[in-house]
Amino acid sequence: MVTPARFLDVLRIKFGNRVQENVALAPYTSARIGGPAAVFIIANSADDLIEIMAVIWQQKMPYIILGGGSNVLISDRGVHGVVILNRAKGTKFHKGDQPKVWAESGVVFSNLANRCASKGLSGLEWAAGIPGTVGGAVVGNAGAFGGEISGNLIVAEVLTLNGREQWPVEKMEYGYRTSILKGNPGRAIILSAELTLKNSTKDSVSAKIEQFRERRKRTQPPGASMGSIFKNPAGEHAGRLIEAAGLKGVRIGNAEISPLHGNFFINHDETKADDMRALIEFAQKTVMDKFDIMLELEVELIGDWSVES
C-alpha cells in the first residue's frame, strides 16, 4: 500500500505536473471554506477521471471527488489524501418526440438547465438555481420546487472496480436527498447521466426559470454558503424549526445562521470550518432541546476533523 508521502510521486509518474500539492480548497467550494488538499488533480473528462481512478484504486490511495463544492464542509486542516476536481463537462442533446440530454458528471447543473431553456427543452427548470454538478445531483437526489433528479434520470454511467456500468434509475434506490451511492460512499463514481426532457418553447421555459429565480431571491440569502444545511424532517421544515428556536442571526465567529432563511448558514469573510461546524452543532442541540427533533445533515463533512492538541 502506498504511504501518504508517496501519493504525489506515484501520480506524477502517470500525470506529470498536472498533480499538485498543498492546494487550498476553499476557492473550489460554494461556502469558500476549507483547508488544503495534500494532493490535487483535475479530471477534464470522464475518460480522464477513469484513468486517474485506476491509479488511485490500484495503489489504495484515500481520495475524494469534488464537483461544484456545494453541500460540503471541508475541514480547516484539509484533506490528507487525493482530491480530484471533476471538470468533465461533455454534453449531447437528443431532440425528437422524446428529447433527452447526456451530460458528464462535472457539468454545472444550473448551467445545464439554462442550456436546455435556450433550446426550448423543459424538465429541468427547477434546477436552474441549484449549485453543484450533475454528478453531485445524481448521488444526492438534488431537488427544488417539486422537482428531483430522480424524476429526470434515465440512466447513470458509473465507474466501479469492475469498470464502466450503466445503472438505470431504479438501481439508484432514490429517497429524499439520498441514493444507494450516497449511503455507500466509494461503491461507484458517477461518470455521466442521461436525463429525460420535454419539448416546449424557449420563452415558456425561460419564464418558468425566471419565476423560480425570483422566488429564490425572496426566500434564500445571497453570500457564500453550502446550500441547505439540514434535511427537512418528515412533515416539517428545518428552516422553520431553526427560526422557531430563535436562532436566525446567531453567529459563531464569522459563521452566521441567515436572518432570511434558517437553513442557510453564511460565511462572512474567511470563516473557519470549525466555527461553522460549531454553529451547526449548536443549532442541532437547540432544536433537539426545544422540539425533540434531531436535524440530520444534508451537507457532508470532508477532511480531517480530528481535535488538535
What does this structure look like?
The protein has 309 residues and is of the alpha+beta class. It folds into 3 domains: 4-86, Uridine Diphospho-n-acetylenolpyruvylglucosamine Reductase, domain 2 (2-Layer Sandwich); 91-217, Uridine Diphospho-n-acetylenolpyruvylglucosamine Reductase, domain 3, CATH 3.30.465.10; 221-302, UDP-N-acetylenolpyruvoylglucosamine reductase, C-terminal domain (Uridine Diphospho-n-acetylenolpyruvylglucosamine Reductase, domain 1, Alpha-Beta Complex), CATH 3.90.78. Helices cover 28% and strands 26% of the residues. The protein has 8 helices and 19 strands. It has a 5-stranded antiparallel sheet with strand order 6-7-13-11-12. Strands 1-2-5-3 form a 4-stranded mixed sheet. Helix 3 packs antiparallel against helix 6 (202-219). The mean pLDDT is 94.
Q: Treating each run of at least 4 consecutive H or I residues as one helix, how many helices?
A: 8
Oligomer: single chain
Poorly predicted runs of 5 or more residues: none
Averaged pLDDT: 94
Overall morphology: globular
Main β sheet profile: 5 strands, antiparallel
CATH topology of the largest domain: Uridine Diphospho-n-acetylenolpyruvylglucosamine Reductase, domain 3
What is the CATH level 1 assignment of the largest domain?
Alpha Beta
Distance between the ends:
29 Å
Tell me the structural class. Answer: alpha+beta
Give me the strand/helix succession.
HEEHEEEEEHEHEEEEHEEHEHEEEHE
Secondary structure tally: strands: 19
Helicity range of the residues? Answer: 25-40%
Estimate the strand proportion: 25-35%
CATH architectural group of the largest domain: 2-Layer Sandwich
User: How many domains?
Assistant: 3
